[in-house]
Design brief:
This protein is of the alpha/beta class. The chain is 40% helix and 9% strand. The chain contains eight helices and six strands, in the order H-H-E-H-E-H-E-H-H-E-E-E-H-H. It has a six-stranded mixed β-sheet with strand order 3-2-1-4-6-5. Strand 1, helix 3 and strand 2 form a beta-alpha-beta unit. Helix 3 crosses helix 7 and helix 6 packs across helix 8. The longest helix is centred in the middle third of the chain and has 19 residues. The chain is globular.
Amino acid sequence: MTVVNIIEEAETLNAKLATLSLAERLSFVAGLGVRVVFTTSLGIEDQVITAEIGNHRLPIDVVTLQTGRLFPETLALIAETESQYDIHITRYEPEQADIDAYAAKYGMNGFYESIEARHACCGVRKLKPLARALAGATIWITGLRRGQSANRAETPFAEYDAERHLLKMNPLADWDIDTIKSYVADKSVPVNPLHARGYPSIGCEPCTRAIKPGEPERAGRWWWEQDEKRECGLHVAEEATAVAAQ
């Protein structure tokens, strides 16, 4: 299939998903007969998607990037989620050789010193494991929402991921945080206790802080950087490219 064909397929899928409920969106892609992978960070959005996958027994692979720097609360939630929904969440970890090479060049916490070092850390701990997680997949499901940040305000339901040459599906693109919280309360979905402590977006422990009143949801991620569009490279092509080129 050519790139043009995949882009056209993404546009068709985007239009189709816009007319469906969350359960219908997930069921539709699960029934396409291809490998579908959902990457969860165990945040509140991702827990909603996991609940739908588990409750409806959908044939979607649920995976997480166990970076080695996650909060203890996040690690505990992985096991709790597996138990509640009777599913297995596959962990993808960074290679020790890559961690050692990073530490030798930048220091273990060198990500505080420069954007280059931070992108390199995300590359080792997130991007490389993600590549292994998505190997052989045709569709990649994420928990991206338009309301998470200005950088994500135009998030479609489906798009072509040129970096990974697959279809990327964002089934919660049009959900706001109040809808997310109502679903969680109604369905008794387990969530990270850090959310109640001011962490709406939770990543690696050294790189995440609680937000202040009035700050955007993702203000607590890599807070020492000044770029308001800061990302790790998982969902922004130019940053992923920069890391891969190192």
